[in-house]
Amino acid sequence: LARMRRLSTGSQEMLKLLAVIPEPIPMGDALRLPGVEGERVDESVKRGFLELETDRLAFRHDLIRRAVESSLAAHERRAKFQAVLAGLPEATHPCLLIHCAREVDDVDRRLDLAPRSARYAAAAGSHVQAVEDFREVGPHLELIEPVERASLLDDWAHEEFLIGGVDDAIRLSGLACDDYRASGDAVAESRALARRALYVETMGDRSRAEELGRAAIEVLGPKPSGQDLARALELNAYLHTMAGDTDRVTRLVDRTLEAGGPDLDETVVIRSLNHRGTAISLSAYPSGRDRLEEARAPADNAAEWYEAACAIEMQVWTAREHRDLSSASELSQQAIVVAGDHEIHGLEDFARAQRARVLELMGSWDEATDICRNLADAGPTAQMLALPVLGVIETRRGRSSASAVLSEAWARAPASDEDH
Question: pLDDT for 32-64, tens place per residue?
């Protein structure tokens, strides 16, 4: 701070403004801000306060930025945030502007910026960032119109689900269903019910998931459009896939594709192919493996990473069930990488649990045990697979803890009523 006082007054004021920006910004955007001028930037770079690399301006070290920011009086700090909020373009700095809006308690700007930033992050595959942005609007939901709020809650719930926050996903999707129902939007309510059924099934409550799956169809009325019916049918096909009911899966997939017709949404098609491929592969392995590849290939090509990870998970499951352990081991590693790289942490945990089961079958008990113990805080689906693996290994090793582990696994099993 003593060195900063040797700079020109204009450069000092510029540094105070830039100090409330905790990230490098393009030089062109910095020059939009009041008091930021080329000569002042040059002086600050020369004196070791700022650095300019690949046309991005930042403090030479974050400790310098923090020291300058900490010197600001409360009214100065607020004024600087307001200047940044007014000066930077929304398209390129949504997260920073949300931060500024929070600091100056500008609720309207937060409600405007956060959902747009969240959806942009979600589309880019940054699901953790999307959740952080959505959570910005949580304290102010009552200020949003019900129709807009329903869509926001629905999207927010899905992002929570992807990163493993299934409890939050269920809660938020319930609120979304309520708002859709109140507004009379049966189509949107059906989609939200189908999503909610997926979240509930992931928590191990199969009977409730099936109720929601039936409701997703019933709410559409006696004459639904083919596309809407297909979306609801696909969810029901998924539920029967996870229960290993192969005959019913095939019939439901056929109904889904027939109802949706040639213009059926690509994601629904990919999921349906995955369900049918799983059913065929379970009953006719290894000849059925090609049918699962039919689902994985379009998912990869369309960068539908959740669907791609699901397809790999099903390949692991069917290979494991038929004791093709070398294939299951390789595929489980692929599933972990795909889910982890794309911030789909719920599926990543399940992939690790599947890998533990494969390793247990291969005799790699130490590695399987380590994985299971690291899943102690994972969601119910991963634990329903990991706990029996851990219990079996501890039983074989004669450990006294085996009984408690197996009892917990048994207690979780009836609600899910699923094969894997």
Answer: 999 999 999 999 999 999 999 889 999 999 999
Between CA 279 and CA 271 the distance in angstroms is 12
- What element of type H or E holds 89? none
At 254, the amino acid letter reads D
pTM: 0.82
Element (H, E) at 419: none
Q: Residue 416 — pLDDT band, cuts 50, 70, 90?
A: low
Structure tokens that stand for 357 in this block = 């089961």
Helix and strand numbers (H, E) in the chain are 22, 3
How far is it between the farthest Cα atoms of the chain? 80
φ/ψ of residue 210, rounded to 5: -65, -35
Pairing verdict, β 25-26 and 56-59: antiparallel
**Cross-strand partners of 51:** 58
Question: Which pLDDT does position 102 carry in this prediction?
Answer: 87
Q: Phi first, then psi: what are they for 52, rounded to 5°?
A: -125, 110
Give the residue-averaged pLDDT of 240-265.
Answer: 91
pLDDT tens by residue, 72-100 = 999 999 999 999 998 988 777 788 888 88
**Please, what's the b/e burial string for 40-71 (b: 16 or more CB within 10 A of its CB; e: otherwise)?**
bbebbeeeebbeeeeeebbbeeeebbeebbee
Residue of 58, 54, 21 whose CA lies nearest to 41: 58
| CB-CB contact of 228 with 220 (8 Å) | yes
